[in-house]
Amino acid sequence: MTNDREYSAAQRAELRISRILNPNHPLSREDVIWMLEYIKKKVADDDPALTGLSQPRLLRNFHCFAEAAMSLIHRGRASDQEADRLQGWLKEASYGLTAAKRSEPHE
To answer: Which of 3, 26, 92, 102 would you label with 62, given CA atoms 20 to 30 Å apart?
Structure first.
């Protein structure tokens, strides 16, 4: 069995993102906060992956980031449908920042 210490920080982040965005994963508040922090850090660090995205795509990323953040603020107990919508927003907000998204044409 592979130990987490055997992975780089980037690999651990990719694994966590993959788990969070998995439709079978029960999304927690901690997952959403972690994902929003990850995206915020990538933007603040001027991640080169963002430079290849078009302005409409960047606006879509921001819109979904804002929707996810506002959902977290206003969220009581989330239904399965709300959790699915939140996962979708996180997926769109992280577009271009994850290994899976860098390989998908999606504009």
So the answer is: 26
